[in-house]
Amino acid sequence: MPFWAMGALSFLPLWGFMYARGLTPETKVVEGPISIGTEVYTNCSSCHGAAGGGGVGRQLSGGEVLKTFPAIEDQLNLVYTGSQAYDVAGLTTYGDPNREGGPHQPGWGKGAYMPAQGGSLTDVEILGVVCHERYDLGGADPTSEQWAAEYEEWCAPEAPKFLELEEGKTFADLEGVGTTPRPSVLAQG
Is the whole-model pTM more than 0.85? Predict the structure, then answer.
């Protein structure tokens, strides 16, 4: 083997490493509540599907979660309390009462209730999973005029509501979020 070939061949492992690294897609680093929610949602996927397509639980993908909950506070309330609490409180619907296709009812005629997550998950985790459902699965665009203010307030990595929860506040401390079943903020006026 020629002497000069030994030098060239010694760089072959380095070249192979660089080549393989160049083929590996760059992973997107997600921070804040959506990052937390992505991890927590694995527990929700057994009912709602890995991509939010539904199953035992309601469909979240394709904008369905946004039709039901145009206000994030309503979705946070349902996830915290669960839907059976609405039945017990005598509330016949949750989310947007004027929802296209009709409002959602607790138990949705099958006796299948969304279990309460308050107490099982922290308020930070509940916010995270709701943000993940709205922006990753539901298709809300955080740069659109319709969703930008909500995203910046609740779901961005430095969102004020997220930071307040991380610092120890609870949903009960935050304006607009209830920890007991209540009619939609849209119905309240």
Answer: no
